[in-house]
């Protein structure tokens, strides 16, 4: 019964892995039946990458020790056997150790039902798998850097990453075995590449340097031997070169992948980071860059709007200044017109106040005023001028602010002084001034000063 349940749980594990990741708040997923936790890298199902890694290791070991290293000269052959043999042997030991070790948190490994069916995560109660260092799936308190692996379905102590090549998680318990496995694999591949390059060069330059083993004397020059010195297997030169090319390409690809991985972990050691920390910082940086990219156009739009508003305000201010200038100009013209209108109005009133008709005509003639046909017209002009004065709120203007007119009107200009508080000029005074002006000699054009203004 337990065996059937165990296999059934394994079959459903692929559908349940995504539920073990930390999910953001507000997201609900369909809960699948729980699965059991994987103990180590040997727990079924095995990953395809794990099978590829073991196949590549076996292939390089066979062709390296059985075909290419025996072709080296005697002295270099023994040195290469020792160096590459130690690296390949060391890699095998640490690789198996990294796969076999259980990297789970100590509280998880000491559970009574460890390896049994995991409980279902109720996201209605718990939005994350681990909250306040308590795992709601493992149902234990874990370390600060522990993370729940979705593939292994358990909390890993000091989680670094899940390695598909090992089919196991990498944590504090097996990290150094993982790192040693990668480093030994890189060194072993480098040594094997050097051997292959030497064989290629010697095959085209001096093939006799590769046929130093005594068993080659029994075969022609185009026949090569494999698995020396224990068991000689004749192969053609085409097979030898083909296997050398395939092995060299495989070594270059492996060196590219493993070399990059080794340099990356050396960088993490220097920065004192784990792979998980590095990935977390990368996501935060991407999120920050995205926010910056979004905020830059928004700021540009705000700046453009503010600039447009400033330009509009500036334009409005310029229009207001121009309007104010035009208003002042119009007001000055209106004031001048009103001043002239008031001046002519008062002169007309002074002329009309005379009793003698000849004196009235002489007054209008001397002041260059048109005699109205009737007094109604004069009253209408008075009303218009008065309304203009009232609408403009003009102040009285003194005679000193009015430009001098013709010489014949100077006496009348002196009499008209709106800025003074003196009494209004009478008809008798105006008549006297006109008579004095008529009796004055015509040759003299100098203005006569009125006694009223002295």
TrEMBL record:
GO MF, one annotated term: protein-cysteine S-palmitoyltransferase activity
UniProt membrane topology term: Multi-pass membrane protein
GO cellular component: endoplasmic reticulum; Golgi apparatus; membrane
Pfam assignment, any one: DHHC
Main localization (coarse): membrane
UniProt EC number: 2.3.1.225
Residue segments, region Disordered: 379-404, 425-454
UniProt-listed GO biological process terms: protein targeting to membrane
InterPro entries to which the protein is assigned, alphabetical: Palmitoyltrfase_DHHC (IPR001594), PFA4/ZDH16/20/ERF2-like (IPR039859)
Cell compartment(s), UniProt: Membrane
Entry note about domains: The DHHC domain is required for palmitoyltransferase activity.
Name the record gives this protein: Palmitoyltransferase
Origin species: Sarcophilus harrisii (Tasmanian devil)
């Amino acid at each position: 019964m337990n065996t059937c349940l165990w296999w059934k749980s394994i079959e459903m594990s692929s559908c349940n892995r995504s539920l073990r990741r930390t999910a953001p708040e507000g997201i609900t997923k369909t809960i699948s039946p729980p699965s059991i936790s994987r103990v180590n890298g040997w727990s079924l199902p095995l990953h395809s990458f794990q099978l590829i890694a073991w196949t590549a290791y076996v292939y390089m070991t066979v062709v390296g020790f059985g075909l290419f290293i025996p072709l080296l000269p005697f002295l270099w052959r023994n040195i290469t056997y020792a160096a590459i043999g130690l690296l390949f042997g060391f890699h095998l030991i640490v690789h198996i150790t990294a796969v076999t070790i259980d990297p789970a948190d100590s509280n998880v490994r000491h559970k009574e039902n460890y390896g049994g069916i995991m409980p279902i995560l109720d996201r209605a109660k718990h939005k994350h798998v681990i909250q306040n260092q308590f795992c709601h799936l493992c149902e234990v308190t874990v370390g600060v850097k522990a993370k729940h692996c979705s593939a292994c379905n358990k909390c890993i102590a000091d989680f670094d990453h899940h390695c598909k090549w090992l089919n196991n998680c990498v944590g504090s318990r097996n990290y150094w075995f993982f790192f040693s496995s990668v480093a030994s694999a890189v060194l072993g591949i480098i040594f094997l590449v050097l051997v292959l390059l030497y064989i290629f060069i010697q095959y085209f330059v001096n093939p006799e340097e590769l046929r130093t083993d005594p068993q080659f004397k029994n075969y022609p020059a185009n026949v090569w031997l494999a698995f020396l010195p224990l068991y000689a297997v004749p192969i053609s030169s085409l097979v030898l070169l083909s296997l050398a090319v395939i092995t060299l390409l495989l070594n270059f690809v492996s060196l590219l992948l493993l070399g990059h991985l080794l340099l990356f972990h050396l960088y993490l050691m220097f920065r004192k980071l784990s792979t998980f920390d590095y990935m977390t910082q990368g996501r935060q940086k991407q999120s920050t860059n995205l926010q910056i990219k979004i905020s830059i156009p928004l700021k540009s739009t705000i700046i453009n709007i503010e600039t447009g508003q400033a330009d509009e305000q500036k334009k409005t201010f310029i229009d207001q200044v121009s309007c104010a200038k035009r208003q002042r100009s119009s007001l000055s013209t209106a004031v001048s017109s009103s001043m002239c209108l008031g001046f002519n109005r008062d002169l007309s009133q002074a002329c009309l106040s005379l009793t003698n008709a000849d004196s009235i005509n002489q007054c209008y003639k001397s002041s260059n005023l048109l005699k109205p046909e009737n007094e109604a017209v004069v009253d209408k002009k008075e009303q218009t001028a008065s309304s203009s004065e009232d609408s403009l709120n003009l102040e009285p203007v003194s005679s000193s602010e009015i430009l001098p007119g013709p010489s014949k009107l100077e006496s009348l200009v002196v009499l008209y002084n709106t800025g003074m508080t003196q009494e209004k000029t009478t008809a008798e005074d105006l008549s006297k001034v006109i008579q004095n002006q008529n009796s004055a000699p015509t040759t003299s054009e100098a203005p006569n000063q009125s006694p009223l203004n002295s």
